[in-house]
Design goal:
Radius of gyration: 31 Å
Largest sheet: 7 strands, mixed
Number of strands: 34
Shape: globular
Distance between the termini: 74 Å
Low-confidence stretches: 1-23, 806-814, 825-829
Length: 829
C-alpha cells in the first residue's frame, strides 16, 4: 500500500494515543470504516501496481479509463479512441479499465487483455490492460524463414523452455510447417505444426463429430499445433495468427492437446474445446489431455465473454458435470469459474463417471480455479462465502454440489481436531491406502454397515490390512436396503459376506498428551472393548455436510433435510443453486422427491444449463432478467444412476446396481407390481434384469467376476425391453443362458451402449412424431428410422467394428439396409 493508503489505519491509532489515560470506545463499525480504502487510495494503488519505477519514487506508467460512453451504432469504432487517449498521455505505457462482473463486455475491450485475479483476491471488478504498442498496425502472418531464428530467440528469451522451443522451431521451419507473426519486422508470435494427426485416437476420446464434419474432409486437411507462442502485447491478435496458419498451410482444422500441468497459451481463448466422451476406450487409444480445435469457422465465430463469478461448492460428479456443461457451451465463454474441492478431486469409485483420464480431458486447469477449501460461511446480502482457511470468495452464482458426506470424521474432529488424521472414508481409503501402510499400523476399526463398509473390507483384504483389523462394527440402525440387495444376490452364489458387530463408537480422542494414538471408546455393554487405534474407517449413512448445513441455515436458505430447489435447480435465493444428492425438489413437485436417485451427470448438466440461461441474458445486454427454465426434462435424456462396490469373494468380486429413481428409492430384487424378473447364474456370475408392468427395465443387478463399464450399466435401466433384441422371447425359450454375456458381448448391444445413443433415440422419436402428424404410414416411419439408424452406425463405424463386419456381409440393398436398421434398434416396436 502507498503512504496515503495507510492514513486511515494510522488515524485510529493516533486518536487513542492523544486520549492519554482516557479510554475511548472504538466499535467494530469504526474499524471497518477506517480500513475501507477510499476511491483515491484504490486509484493510487492501481497506479502503483503497474509502475516499473523505483519503489520509493513510484512514477505510474498507466492511466485509467473511468468513463466510456459511445452510441451503440458506433461501438465497433471504439478502437479509434484508444490511439487518441495514448496520444493525450505520451508518458504512459499502459491503459486500464475495470468492469463489474455482471456487465457485458463492450467492443472497446476486444483489444485489451483480461487479467486473472490472484487466488482469494476480492477485488470487486474485472481488470483489463492494454499496452500502447498493441495499437501498432502491420500485424503480418507468414511462413517462417531461416532468418527468423534470431527473432524467435528474442521472443522466447526468459522462458524456462526457451531452448526446447527454439529446437522445435528450427525443425518445423526446415519441414516448412512453421509460421511466424511479425510487426514492423519484429517477430511477435510463432506456431509450429505437425501434419500427422491420429484421428482414430481423437475420435475414440472426443466427440469430434459434434464440431467437425469428418466424412466430408480428407485426413490431410487436419493438423496439430505442436507449439504456439505470442507476445502478450498482441494476445488479442491470436485469431489472426491461427487463421494465418490455416491459410498458409492449407489446413481446415487445427488441434491443440493440453495435458495436465502444461502452461496455458494465449491462443486458447479463441479455440473451441472438444467435448470429451464418457466412454472407456481401448488402453492403447486412451488420451489424458484436453483437446481444443480451431476451424475456418472459428475465425469468424467469437464467443461472448461472461464475467459472472460462478462458484461451485463440491467436486462431486454433479459438480464436475455442471462445470463441464459451462465449459463446453458453444457460444458463451465463462471467465470466472471456481471449484471448491476439499482434499482435491477424488477418484476411484467403482461406478464413477469421471475417471482420471476423463477429468484430464476436461482441461480444468485452463479455465477453472480449483481450490482445496471448504465453504463454512455465507453472506447472501454481499454475495460472499467464507472458506475454512479464512479467505473469502465473491460470487454471482453459487452452486452447491457437495453431495452427501460420511459423518464420522467431521463428528469426532469437531470434538478433538487432532484426531482428524486418524479418520478416513472409503473413497480416501481406496485411493490412498497402500500395502505398506498396513505394516505401520496395529489396530484399524471399520465403522458402519453400508456398501462402503463392504468396499473398505475388500480394499483392506487386497492390500494386506485385514491382519490389522481390530473391529468391524456399526451403530444399531435399520439395515441398509442396498446392502440387503447385495446379500440376497450373494446368497444365490453361496457367498458369505462379513457382517458388523452392533457397537456405537462413543468417543475418539487423545486422552493423554503423550498418546501417539487416539482412544476409541464404545458405549457400555458393547462387544467391542475400548482401545487405542491407528485408523477409523467411517462407513455410516451419508448426510449433508455440517458446515454446508450451518452456512445455509444461518443465512436463511430453505432446508428440509436437503436443500430445497425448484424445476431450475434454484433454491429460495435466486443466486444460489443446488443439485445432486444434497438437494430435493420443492413439495409442489411431489412429496419428498429426493434427487439422489438420478444420474449425477444428468443433474449436473441440468444445473449448468440453468446457470447458462442466466449468463446468456447477461451477455446479450438484457441484464439478469431471464426466466428460469424447467431443466427436469434433461434428466430423461440421460442414462440411469449406477452404484456399486468391490466384494471380498473369489467367486464374484463386483457388485453393481443400475435403476430408475424409484428403484434407487426402494432397492430390492422383488419386481414392482405387475413386473417380472429375468435371472441367470453362470460362470460369469449373477445378473437380474427387473421389468415393470409396462415392460420398461426397472433395475439391473450384477454380482460377477468382472465389472461392466459404468456407461454400459447406466444404459440398461429406463429403456423398454424391446430395445434388447427380443430378450423376453429368447429368455423364455432358454436361448439366454447368461445375461451378462447377452448385454455386453452381442454385436447389437454395442449400439445401445454408445454414448450418443440417447440422442439417436430422441432424433427417431421426434422425427417419427413429425412424420406421423404429416400423414406417413407406420411402414414409412419404420423405413426412415431404419435408414437413420444405419446412417448413425456408419457415421460412427470406428465404434462398431463388429456391427460393421456383420453389416458388410448382410447389407446388400436398400431393403436389406432397412431390415438391418430395424434389427439393430427396434426403436419403434
Amino acid at each position: 500500500a502507498t503512504d496515503e493508503g495507510q492514513g486511515g489505519k494510522e488515524g485510529v491509532g493516533e486518536e487513542k494515543e492523544e486520549g492519554g489515560d482516557e479510554e475511548e470506545t472504538v466499535t467494530q463499525a469504526d474499524l471497518d470504516a477506517a480500513a475501507e480504502p477510499s476511491e483515491e487510495e484504490v486509484q493510487a494503488e492501481m497506479a502503483y501496481m503497474f509502475s516499473y519505477a523505483d519503489e520509493m519514487n513510484a512514477q505510474p506508467s498507466v492511466f485509467a479509463i473511468t468513463m466510456a460512453c459511445l452510441d451503440e451504432l458506433y461501438e465497433p469504432q471504439a478502437w479509434n479512441f484508444l490511439q487518441e487517449a495514448f496520444d493525450a498521455f505520451p508518458d504512459k505505457q499502459y491503459c486500464v479499465l475495470t468492469l463489474p462482473h455482471d456487465s457485458p463486455e463492450p467492443p472497446l475491450v476486444s483489444s485489451f487483455t483480461r487479467l486473472d485475479p490472484l487466488p482469494g483476491n476480492s477485488f470487486p471488478e474485472v481488470l483489463y490492460l492494454i499496452n500502447r504498442h498493441a495499437l501498432i498496425e502491420g500485424f503480418e502472418v507468414r511462413r517462417a524463414e531461416e532468418a527468423d531464428a534470431e527473432g524467435v530467440s528474442m521472443l522466447v528469451s526468459g522462458m524456462p523452455n526457451s531452448a526446447h522451443v527454439q529446437d522445435l522451431f528450427r525443425n518445423a521451419q526446415a519441414r516448412g510447417t512453421a509460421v511466424v507473426a511479425s510487426v514492423q519486422g519484429e517477430v511477435v508470435g510463432l506456431a509450429t505444426v505437425s501434419t500427422s494427426v491420429d484421428l482414430v485416437m481423437l475420435k475414440a476420446n472426443f466427440s469430434l463429430s459434434h464440431l467437425v464434419n469428418l466424412p466430408d474432409q480428407m485426413s490431410s486437411e487436419h493438423a496439430e499445433i505442436d507449439m504456439v507462442c505470442l507476445n502478450p502485447i498482441f494476445a488479442h491478435r491470436a485469431r489472426e495468427l491461427l487463421s494465418g496458419v490455416h491459410r498458409i498451410l492449407k489446413k481446415t482444422v487445427l488441434y491443440y492437446a493440453l495435458p495436465p500441468g502444461q502452461a496455458i497459451p494465449d491462443t486458447l481463448d479463441v479455440m473451441q474445446q472438444v467435448p470429451p466422451r464418457h466412454v472407456d476406450p481401448p488402453a492403447e487409444l486412451e488420451a489424458e489431455f484436453a483437446l481444443y480445435m480451431f476451424s475456418r469457422k472459428s475465425a469468424f465465430l467469437k464467443r461472448q465473454c461472461v464475467n459472472a463469478q460462478v462458484v461451485v461448492v463440491g467436486a462431486s460428479e454433479t459438480g464436475l458435470a455442471a462445470v463441464e456443461r459451462m465449459l463446453l457451451h458453444p457460444r458463451l465463454h465463462l471467465n470466472f469459474i471456481t471449484l471448491l474441492a476439499p482434499g482435491g478431486i477424488q477418484m476411484g469409485d467403482l461406478a464413477s463417471q469421471y475417471t482420471k483420464s476423463i477429468i484430464a480431458r476436461l482441461g480444468l486447469q485452463a479455465r477453472v480455479s480449483v481450490l482445496n477449501a471448504e465453504m463454512v460461511g455465507l453472506d447472501r446480502a454481499e454475495r460472499v462465502i467464507a472458506l475454512n482457511d479464512g479467505a473469502q470468495l465473491n460470487y454471482d452464482f453459487l452452486l452447491i454440489t457437495c453431495g452427501l458426506q460420511e459423518p464420522t470424521a467431521s463428528f469426532f474432529a469437531q470434538r478433538d481436531p487432532e484426531v482428524a488424521g486418524n479418520v478416513c472414508g472409503t473413497q480416501e481409503l481406496t485411493s490412498d491406502f497402500m500395502f505398506g501402510d498396513s505394516l505401520t499400523m496395529e489396530r484399524i476399526v471399520l465403522y458402519g454397515s453400508t456398501l462402503d463398509a463392504i468396499q473398505a473390507w475388500s480394499v483392506l483384504e487386497l492390500r494386506g490390512g485385514m491382519s490389522r483389523l481390530y473391529s468391524f462394527c456399526a451403530p444399531p440402525a435399520p439395515p441398509d436396503p442396498m446392502v440387503q440387495v447385495l446379500q440376497a444376490a450373494a446368497e444365490k452364489l453361496h457367498i458369505e459376506l462379513p457382517e458388523p458387530q452392533p457397537a456405537r463408537l462413543r468417543a475418539l480422542e487423545f486422552t493423554d498428551e503423550n498418546d501417539a494414538k487416539p482412544m476409541a471408546s464404545f458405549e457400555e455393554g458393547s462387544p467391542v472393548a475400548d482401545s487405542h487405534v491407528d485408523l477409523v474407517i467411517g462407513c455410516q449413512q451419508k448426510q449433508v455436510p455440517t458446515s454446508i448445513f450451518t452456512a445455509l441455515n444461518d443465512s436463511g436458505v430453505v432446508f428440509d433435510g436437503r436443500i430445497v430447489v425448484d424445476c431450475a435447480m434454484c433454491s429460495s435465493d435466486p443466486n444460489i443453486y443446488a443439485a445432486g444428492s444434497c438437494a430435493k425438489l420443492s413439495r409442489r413437485y411431489g412429496d419428498n422427491v429426493l434427487l439422489q436417485g438420478y444420474n449425477a451427470r444428468a443433474l449436473g448438466t441440468a444445473l449448468g444449463e440453468s446457470v447458462l440461461v442466466r449468463c446468456t441474458s447477461i451477455a446479450q445486454h438484457e441484464g439478469d432478467t431471464a426466466e428460469l427454465p424447467n431443466v427436469l426434462s434433461i434428466l430423461q435424456s440421460f442414462p440411469s444412476k449406477v452404484i456399486g462396490c468391490q466384494v471380498p469373494s473369489p467367486i464374484a468380486n463386483t457388485f453393481m446396481f443400475s435403476g430408475c429413481p424409484r428403484a434407487h428409492q426402494s432397492p430390492s430384487l422383488q419386481p414392482p407390481a405387475g413386473g417380472r424378473a429375468l435371472v441367470t447364474i453362470s460362470e460369469r456370475g449373477f445378473m437380474q434384469l427387473t421389468l415393470d408392468a409396462g415392460g420398461t427395465l426397472y433395475s439391473a443387478v450384477l454380482l460377477g467376476q468382472v465389472p461392466i463399464g459404468t456407461h454400459k450399466m447406466a444404459a440398461l435401466a429406463g429403456l423398454h425391453v424391446s430395445y434388447y433384441n427380443d430378450l423376453v422371447a429368447k429368455f423364455d425359450a432358454g436361448e439366454v443362458p447368461c445375461l451378462i454375456h447377452y448385454i455386453t458381448n452381442e454385436p447389437w448391444a454395442s449400439l445401445m451402449h454408445h454414448d450418443e445413443f440417447p440422442q439417436l433415440r430422441q432424433q427417431l422419436a421426434l422425427g417419427s412424431m413429425q412424420e406421423l402428424a404429416g400423414g406417413a404410414t407406420p411402414a414409412d416411419i419404420l423405413a426412415a428410422a431404419a435408414r437413420a439408424s444405419y446412417h448413425f452406425i456408419s457415421h460412427h463405424h470406428l465404434d462398431f467394428p463388429r456391427l460393421m463386419a456383420y453389416s458388410t456381409k448382410t447389407v446388400r440393398s436398400e431393403q436389406a439396409a432397412e431390415q438391418f436398421g430395424r434389427e439393430q434398434t427396434a426403436a419403434l416396436s
